[in-house]
């Protein structure tokens, strides 16, 4: 059985993002052209609001402890076309048009290696 | 400039997963048929090892504080075909063949709603 709050969170129309103890939710940026995963980062309420307001992906840097817009220095911004929300509302998918390589290493995606036999193989 | 450890982590062949303070990394399960995002969950070292050992996705439940195999009660397991690792090795993508709906709500994916005008619309 599902309690009414969980039922509402999972089936309802009300957006009630569930931030974790650090005030963050996980965001997966995917390329809206082919659905491939570009990068993963975290958002606090401020980053989420900025993303919705501007249409460009903003995140909260855990290492730097601040808001950042993806591409703010490189120019490789992510234009957000749609935001999908998961069942328990603690994770979102950003369907994006990337303005360049999504990874700071200049790879198109951060996921450029496959684990094979304990080794990482570039794909 | 990139320091040698970071350089090795980002460009090398050595798998050195970077678990967070809680001992977890983030795993994004995608459908290997079309690349769509199915679900997002967390793995500790044990869950990662079990996934590699068995070929079925295992996670660490933060709420229940234990290892679980996705589908252990529903039968809706995720057969892992490949594991991709991101630049800083704190997130992975699991390319999976799902044995049924990936979401516990019986939706094919946990991301079954789109945020539109502040409301969640079922897709």
UniProtKB/TrEMBL annotation, chains A, B:
Keywords: Amino-acid biosynthesis, Histidine biosynthesis, Hydrolase. It holds the Pfam family PRA-CH. Pathway: Amino-acid biosynthesis; L-histidine biosynthesis; L-histidine from 5-phospho-alpha-D-ribose 1-diphosphate: step 3/9. The keyword Phosphoprotein does not apply. It is an enzyme of class 3 (hydrolase). Residues 39-112 form the Phosphoribosyl-AMP cyclohydrolase domain. GO terms for molecular function: phosphoribosyl-AMP cyclohydrolase activity. InterPro entries: PRib_AMP_CycHydrolase_dom, PRib_AMP_CycHydrolase_sf. Its EC number is 3.5.4.19. It catalyses: 1-(5-phospho-beta-D-ribosyl)-5'-AMP + H2O = 1-(5-phospho-beta-D-ribosyl)-5-[(5-phospho-beta-D-ribosylamino)methylideneamino]imidazole-4-carboxamide. This is phosphoribosyl-AMP cyclohydrolase. It comes from Novosphingobium aquae. The lineage of its organism: Bacteria, Pseudomonadati, Pseudomonadota, Alphaproteobacteria, Sphingomonadales.
């Amino acid at each position: 059985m599902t309690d009414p709050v969980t039922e509402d969170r999972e089936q309802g129309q009300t957006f009630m993002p569930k931030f974790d103890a650090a005030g963050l939710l996980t965001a997966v940026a995917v390329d809206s052209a082919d659905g491939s995963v570009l990068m993963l980062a975290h958002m606090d309420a401020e980053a989420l609001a900025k993303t919705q307001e501007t249409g460009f992906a903003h995140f909260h840097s855990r290492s730097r402890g601040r808001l950042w817009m993806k591409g703010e220095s490189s120019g490789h911004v992510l234009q957000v076309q749609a935001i999908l929300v998961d069942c328990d509302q603690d994770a979102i998918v950003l369907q994006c048009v990337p303005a360049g390589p999504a990874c700071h290493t200049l790879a198109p995606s951060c996921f450029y290696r496959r684990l094979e036999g304990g080794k990482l193989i570039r794909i």
